[in-house]
Design a protein that fits this description.
Blueprint (H helix, E strand, L loop, with lengths): L1 E5 L7 H17 E9 L5 E3 L2 E3 L2 E8 L8 E3 L23 E3 L4
Antiparallel strand pairs: 1-5, 2-5, 3-4, 6-7
Amino acid sequence: MALEFHGMSRAMTPRGHAEIVAVLAKLARTHCPLHVHGNNYLPPTWLGDLVLPEVLEVTWVRRADHEGRLVPRDEPFPTALDRPNVPDRPDIILGRTFSAPRG
């Protein structure tokens, strides 16, 4: 399932943070993020040394379909498959998610 989350800077307010966490927690009960990409159409928000894109693209997979095969991955996103949404702006570098094992 590919979802695009808009208004992520709302996480900077207590109410916005609670709403975003609630939505992501509900999704995470049955699904796991497999791929993320920070849409660089708008500037990101910085939370200390953490970056928060205004628009976040996430590909989710059903946990039940991948039981025992999802492993933490430390490589940053974007990957070689990604492209900036706005080519003349730098892509937004994101951290850890999960992936199916390779090989």
